Amino acid sequence: LLWLVQRDFLEGSSVSEHLAQSLLLVRAEDEHGAHLNRIRRGLAQLGEMSGLGLPQPHTRRTALCSLTPSELSTDYSSALQRVREWVGARAAERATRGSYSGEQLAARVQRLLR
Fold first, then answer.
1. I want to staple 51 with a disulfide (CB 3.0 to 4.6 A). Which of 8, 15, 24, 106 is the partner?
2. Quick count: other Cβ atoms within 10 Å of Cβ 111?
3. How far is CA 85 from CA 36, 42, 69, 80, 94, in A?
4. CB 23 within 8 A of CB 44
5. What pLDDT is attached to residue 26?
6. What global pTM score does this model have?
7. In this structure, what DSSP letter does residue 65 have?
8. Residue 97: pLDDT over 70
């Protein structure tokens, strides 16, 4: 499972530290906390997780949908290329080992979150 984290949210931590912190269980004082913990436990059962950090794509966040790829920041474009390479390498690796179809993965995630 790959997590993409906007670097603005890291607040000085690494992507791995942010991911680990995000998956910690909370004190479940109400139904919301209990539900959040069920989701976090389910995500933990998915196995290997990695995170990649992405810088902001552009300072004009409200205009992102109308920007062309050439208008995105160079740092963002470079990071996006690294994401594509990471996904491509793992997709090829998984194809040789066998993997879930989209429908099978969706069903597994739904079972884990119940």
1. 15
2. 10
3. 32, 27, 18, 9, 14
4. yes
5. 92
6. 0.58
7. G
8. no
Q: Is 77 exposed, middle or buried (0-12, 13-18, 19+ CB in 10 A)?
A: middle
Distances (CA, A) of 54 to 20, 44, 106: 17, 23, 26
* Count of residues making up the chain: 114
Q: Answer for the pair 25, 37: CB distance below 8 angstroms, yes or no.
A: yes
Q: Are 82 and 52 in contact (CB under 8 A)?
A: yes
Backbone φ and ψ of 110, nearest 5°: -60, -40
pLDDT tens digits along 35-67: 999 989 888 887 778 888 888 776 777 777 888
Alpha-carbon span 60 to 67, nearest angstrom = 9
Q: Which residue has the tokens 């690796």?
A: 93
CB neighbour list of residue 8: distance below 8 Å, 6 or more residues apart: 56
Would you state the structure tokens that stand for residue 16, as one six-digit string?
Answer: 């791995």
